[in-house]
C-alpha cells in the first residue's frame, strides 16, 4: 500500500507549526522542504530567516525543544541545499526519520559515495537515506548509487524548490524504468502529484507520494488530503 506524505515548504517556523497542527492525527509522516536559495532559487526555513543562526533552529539544535509535535510525526527532510554532506550532523540533530540528498547538489559523485559508505550503523539503523533526482538527471548515476541508499526520490519536474509545478512525462518513464530494472527498489515521488495523475503514478510503481500544492492550494485541504489517502 502506498503512502501520502504531505510536503511543507514554508519560509517561517510559525507557518510550519500551523501546518503541522492541521496534520495532527491525519498522517504519520510529513516532509519538510529545506531550500537554501543556492542549489534552488527559493528559500525556506531556516535559510529564509537567518540560516543556521535562526532562533528556533538553534533552540532545536541545543536540545531546548524539538520540532513541533516531534513525538507525533516521522519527519522526512528534503534537503534542496548545498553542503548537505558537510552539514549532515546538524540536520541529524533535528531528529529526521528520513533524509533526502539531491544528486544535483553533489559536487563529486565519488565523494558522495564515500560519504554513504562511511555512515555509521546507528544512522543506518535509525534513518532512511534517500537519493533525489530530476527527470533529466543521468539515470546511470542513479543506478550506480541506488544500492547505497534506502529509497529513490523521483522529482516530477526539473524546477525544484517550488510547489505547483506540472509533472513531467520523463519522470513517469523514469519510475517505470527503475521499477523494472531494480528489484525491490522503493520509489517516492515529489512535485506535480494531482488527483488526475495519482492512479498512473501508482500503476507505474510509486510507493510514496509527497503532495504539497495538491493539498495546501486546494480550497479544502482536509478534504483534499482525505481524497488522496482514499486513492492509495
Order of strands side by side in the largest beta sheet? 1-2-3-4-5-6-7-8
Task: Determine the N-to-C terminus distance.
Answer: 6 Å
Task: Determine the fraction of residues in helical runs and give it as a percent range.
Answer: 25-40%
Q: Return the CATH class.
A: Alpha Beta
User: What does the overall shape look like?
Assistant: globular
InterPro entries: Aldolase_TIM, Ribul_P_3_epim-like, RibuloseP-bd_barrel
Keywords: Isomerase, Metal-binding
GO molecular function, one term: racemase and epimerase activity, acting on carbohydrates and derivatives
Protein name: Ribulose-phosphate 3-epimerase
Summarize, please:
InterPro entries: Aldolase_TIM, Ribul_P_3_epim-like, RibuloseP-bd_barrel. This protein is an alpha/beta fold.
Structure report:
The chain has 232 residues and is of the alpha/beta class. The chain has a single domain, classed as TIM Barrel (Alpha-Beta Barrel), CATH 3.20.20. It has ten helices and eight strands. The chain has helices spanning 13-23, 55-61, 88-92, 109-117, 121-126, 139-146, 169-181, 198-204, 213-216, 221-230, and strands spanning 3-8, 29-35, 74-80, 98-102, 128-133, 151-155, 187-190, 208-211. α6 links the parallel β5 (128-133) and β6 (151-155). The longest helix has 13 residues, at 169-181.
Describe the structure using short key phrases:
232 residues, TIM Barrel, 8 strands
Blueprint of the fold:
Elements: E1 3-8, H1 13-23, E2 29-35, H2 55-61, E3 74-80, H3 88-92, E4 98-102, H4 109-117, H5 121-126, E5 128-133, H6 139-146, E6 151-155, H7 169-181, E7 187-190, H8 198-204, E8 208-211, H9 213-216, H10 221-230
Amino acid at each position: 500500500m502506498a503512502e501520502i506524505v504531505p510536503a511543507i515548504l514554508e519560509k517561517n517556523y510559525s507557518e510550519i507549526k500551523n501546518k503541522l497542527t492541521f496534520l495532527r492525527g491525519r498522517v504519520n509522516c510529513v516532509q519538510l522542504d529545506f531550500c537554501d536559495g543556492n542549489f534552488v532559487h527559493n528559500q525556506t526555513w531556516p535559510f529564509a530567516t537567518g540560516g543556521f543562526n535562526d532562533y528556533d533552529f538553534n533552540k532545536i539544535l541545543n536540545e531546548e525543544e524539538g520540532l513541533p509535535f516531534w513525538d507525533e510525526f516521522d519527519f522526512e527532510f528534503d534537503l534542496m541545499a548545498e553542503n548537505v554532506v558537510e552539514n549532515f550532523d546538524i540536520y541529524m540533530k533535528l531528529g529526521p526519520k528520513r533524509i533526502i540528498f539531491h544528486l544535483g547538489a553533489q559536487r563529486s559523485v565519488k565523494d558522495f559515495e564515500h560519504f554513504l559508505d562511511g555512515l555509521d550503523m546507528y544512522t543506518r539503523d535509525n534513518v532512511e537515506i534517500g537519493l533525489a533526482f530530476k527527470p533529466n538527471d543521468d539515470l546511470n548515476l542513479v543506478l550506480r548509487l541506488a544500492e547505497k541508499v534506502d529509497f529513490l526520490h523521483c522529482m516530477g519536474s526539473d524546477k525544484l524548490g517550488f510547489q505547483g509545478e506540472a509533472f513531467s512525462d520523463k519522470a513517469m518513464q523514469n519510475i517505470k524504468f527503475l521499477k523494472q530494472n531494480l528489484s525491490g527498489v522503493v520509489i517516492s515521488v515529489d512535485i506535480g502529484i494531482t488527483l488526475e495523475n495519482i492512479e498512473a503514478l501508482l500503476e507505474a510503481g510509486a510507493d510514496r507520494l509527497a503532495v504539497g500544492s495538491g493539498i495546501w492550494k486546494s480550497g479544502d485541504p482536509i478534504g483534499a488530503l482525505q481524497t488522496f489517502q482514499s486513492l492509495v
